[in-house]
Amino acid sequence: PPYVCTCCPEEKTCKRNHAYYTAHRAHAEYIKELSTSRKGIRTNPERLMEINDILAPLINKGQSINHIFASHADEIGLSEKTIYNYIDMNAFHIRNIDLPKKVRYRQRHPHDVVMKMDYQYRKGRTYTDFTSFMEQNPNASIVEMDTVYNDVSNGPFIQTFKFMKYDLLICVFHLVKDTGHMRLGILLLESILGEEIFNREVMVIKTDRGSEFTLGDEIELRENGSRRTRIFYCDPMASYQKGSIENIHEMLRQICPKNCDLYALGLTSQVKADRISSHINSYPKEKLNGKTSFQLLEFFSPDMAQKLYDYGLHAIDPDHVTLKPFILKD
Fold first, then answer.
1. Pairing of strands 168-174, 204-207
2. How far is residue 288's CA from residue 303's CA, in Å, rounded to a whole number?
3. Which among 167, 194, 132 is positioned nearest to 284, based on CA atoms?
4. Pairing of β 204-207 and β 142-149
5. How far apart are CA 28 and CA 271, in angstroms?
6. C-alpha distances in Å from residue 303, one per residue of 141, 194, 198, 227, 228
């Protein structure tokens, strides 16, 4: 419509150039400029190279960005989100493929499995029995147990124990995967900690229904009849019921990948299994507020930490923590 110029009231229209203000268009332009001003790399090439020299060697050891920031945040001087964005834009020599795997789990649903028979060793030790026991003993210390291997016939086999209170992983090396050797793994753990600490820290063992864990009575009771621990078995096809140890196995699998010969990789003795434990327990975790499992253990249970250190485990300097197979080589 014609625009009536206030500077020329005597005329109905004004032929001068005029600027019109439209609120929604102005706001859209503002949002666009606000977004584009934040895009791109706002760090000079020299500084990017300095950051790259910090990140690259540590990522090549299998460390995550979060782990690196726990020790080098001040040196890097940027946020984790910015670093991930720069990696996406190929600002460094490292690429997304070099970063540790980001695990996403699909939602699990319980399966109704009808068992032909309820084996004797499971009676009183089902997952339902576990939840009932924990309701009555909410402060009971829990250790999740499992077995990791690539060749079910030839091994080697790693019996894993995760102490839930400390997010701590202990690995026990085996040449054979059977009930006798798995029981010996528990006895080894008891000999390392001593009976008093074992009674306090391993009140409950939660595991799956693998055939190697069927010696329920022999695991729970000592030869003198005193109680060593209690063992409970998850439901079939319900690995999420011991999901915490499944999660930490993702870190172990960075050192011992699937579909490879673990012997050839260098996993040949308990000393190598201890090396895996030391590196994983020296890895700062975001859920522990940047602390390691060893640090958490030293704070809450210094006597147990000392037992493990006396046995041969040891904390590793953050820059030397490595989650790659080559740590198994001599």
1. unpaired
2. 20
3. 167
4. parallel
5. 63
6. 16, 10, 11, 22, 19
Count the neighbouring beta carbons within 10 Å of the beta carbon of residue 57. Answer: 12
Q: What is the CA radius of gyration of the chain?
A: 29
β-strand partners of 163: 143, 168
Closest CA to 267 of 135, 156, 144: 156
| Six-digit token string for 319 | 């820059």
pLDDT, position 52? 83
pLDDT category, 149, cuts 50, 70, 90?
very high
Dihedral in degrees, nearest 10, Cα atoms 174, 180, 182, 186: -110
pLDDT at 81: 83
Integer Cα distance of 76 and 260 in angstroms: 36
Q: Please tell me the distance from the alpha carbon of residue 124 to that of residue 276, in angstroms, as a whole number.
A: 34
Question: Where are the alpha helices (H) located in the chain, listed in sequence order?
Answer: 23-36, 45-59, 65-76, 80-88, 127-136, 179-193, 195-201, 216-220, 243-255, 262-265, 270-281, 293-300, 302-311
Helix-helix angle 65-76:45-59, to 10 degrees: 150
Torsion, Cα 253 256 260 262, to 10 degrees, reads -150
Residue type at 282 in one-letter notation: S
Mean pLDDT (whole number) for 149-155: 89
Q: How much is the average pLDDT of 300-328?
A: 95
Q: Which of 46-55, 126-135, 257-266 has the lowest mean pLDDT?
A: 46-55
Measure the CA–CA gap between 80 and 323, rounded to whole angstroms: 20
Q: In this model, does residue 209 exceed pLDDT 80?
A: yes
Q: Tell me: the pLDDT tens digits for 5-43?
A: 555 655 456 666 766 778 878 887 877 776 665 566 667
Closest residue by Cα to residue 293 from 169, 159, 140, 141: 169
Q: Look over the chain and give the mean of its residue pLDDT values, rounded to a whole number.
A: 86
pTM score: 0.74
Q: Which element (helix H / strand E) includes 172?
A: strand 168-174
Q: What is the DSSP track for 134-169?
A: HHH-TT--EEEEEEEES-TTT--EEEEEEETTTTEE
Please give the residue that has the higher pLDDT: either 191 or 100: 191
